[in-house]
């Protein structure tokens, strides 16, 4: 099993930028690509200022901070991924868009490279079918925010090899994460359980069971969750939550996974959560 030294990350949104920062801080070279130049420069600014703030708070030495900055390369061209050992894809949660990207990556990266997806719910086996290397495709699902959350969920597709699994596990451990392994079923472990809870919180709000504040306080104080489900939905992104519910609904075929109409309406209205300044709550 070859050691991973260089990583490509596609998608510089909340997850991709956090993953790129985590990889760079842990001493590996990382290329970050986003098809939207504004998103790429936003990711560049946010990662640089986070590293600076970690150094000024003494949580990273000056030398380690400088090394992390040197490790990071930002590119608007996927062709720069020719020498990376693994690509971690963190773009929009759409099977069609991800498949197109996997086909393209398959023709750009070197033969030995692994193609990993940070998908929250989409079948790894189906993403792998868009490539000529299904044994080197795997799910590497980081939690939000990636530099802080301790877990990486690893999902093997039907054809994922032991070598691919072992190299991905080693990378996750090198990044300081604990891993859990899930079979390739819609939503895997974490979102199979979390998203129906969030969807149910929307139903509670939609049907007037309680105010948003009381629903969140009820779950925080009543079940010891650090965030209420509606607050957490805003943190994740309501568009991401809706996409995951659609995958669960289609993939598991049970009406209990149908997205709550209020969640659908908020997304239609552009209320996507913290990243847009408004979701269930308003953020200044
Ligand atoms: P986001 O909307 O913050 O970022 C997505 C980024 O991908 C955007 O910057 C967009 O410009 C870019 N992009 C879209 N299509 C692209 C393409 N074809 N090529 C290159 N860049 C492209 O989304 P996010 O919340 O970071 O989620 C990304 C992925 O991570 C999704 O699959 C999501 O399900 C998963 N995920 C999200 C969370 C969460 O809490 N938000 C947690 C775990 C996993």
TrEMBL record:
InterPro entries assigned: 3-OHacyl-CoA_DH, 3-OHacyl-CoA_DH_CS, 3-OHacyl-CoA_DH_NAD-bd, 3HC_DH_C, 6-PGluconate_DH-like_C_sf, 6PGD_dom2, NAD(P)-bd_dom_sf
Binding positions for NAD(+) per the UniProt entry: 11-16, 34, 93, 98, 120, 144, 275
One protein family per Pfam: 3HCDH_N
Keywords: NAD, Oxidoreductase
Coiled coil: none
3-hydroxyacyl-CoA dehydrogenase NAD binding domain: residues covered: 7-184
Superkingdom of the organism of origin: Eukaryota
Site (Important for catalytic activity): 141
Chemical reaction(s) catalysed: a (3S)-3-hydroxyacyl-CoA = a (2E)-enoyl-CoA + H2O; a 4-saturated-(3S)-3-hydroxyacyl-CoA = a (3E)-enoyl-CoA + H2O
Protein's pathway: Lipid metabolism; fatty acid beta-oxidation
Protein's GO biological process: fatty acid metabolic process
MF terms (GO), sorted A to Z: enoyl-CoA hydratase activity; NAD+ binding; oxidoreductase activity, acting on the CH-OH group of donors, NAD or NADP as acceptor
The 3-hydroxyacyl-CoA dehydrogenase C-terminal domain, residue ranges: 187-283
PROSITE patterns on file: 3HCDH
Entry similarity comment: In the central section; belongs to the 3-hydroxyacyl-CoA dehydrogenase family. Belongs to the 3-hydroxyacyl-CoA dehydrogenase family.
Protein name: Uncharacterized protein LOC105165395
Native source organism of the sequence: Sesamum indicum
Gene (name only): LOC105165395
């Amino acid at each position: 099993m070859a050691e991973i030294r260089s990583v490509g990350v596609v998608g510089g949104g909340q997850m991709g930028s956090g993953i790129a920062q985590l990889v760079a801080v842990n001493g590996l070279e990382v290329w970050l690509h986003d098809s939207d130049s504004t998103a790429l420069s936003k990711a560049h600014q946010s990662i640089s200022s986070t590293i600076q703030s970690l150094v000024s708070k003494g949580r990273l030495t000056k030398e380690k901070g400088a090394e992390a900055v040197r490790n990071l390369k930002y590119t608007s061209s996927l062709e720069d991924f020719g020498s990376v050992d693994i690509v971690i894809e963190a773009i929009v949660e759409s099977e069609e868009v991800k498949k197109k990207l996997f086909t393209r990556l398959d023709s750009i990266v070197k033969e030995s490279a692994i193609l990993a997806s940070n998908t929250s719910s989409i079948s790894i086996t189906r993403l792998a079918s868009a490539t000529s290397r299904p044994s080197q495709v795997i799910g590497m699902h980081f939690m939000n925010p990636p530099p802080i959350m301790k877990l990486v969920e690893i999902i093997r597709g039907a054809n994922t090899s032991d070598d691919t699994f072992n190299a991905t596990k080693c990378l996750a451990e090198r990044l300081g994460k604990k891993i859990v392994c899930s079979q390739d079923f819609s939503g895997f472990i974490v979102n199979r359980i979390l998203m129906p809870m969030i969807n149910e919180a929307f139903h509670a709000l939609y049907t007037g069971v309680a105010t948003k504040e009381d629903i969140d306080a009820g779950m925080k104080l009543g079940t010891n969750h650090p965030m209420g489900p509606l607050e957490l939905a805003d943190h994740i992104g309501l568009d991401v939550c809706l996409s995951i519910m659609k995958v669960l609904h289609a993939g598991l075929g049970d009406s209990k996974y149908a997205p709550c109409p209020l969640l659908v309406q908020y997304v239609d209205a552009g209320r996507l959560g913290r990243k847009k300044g408004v979701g269930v709550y308003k953020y200044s």
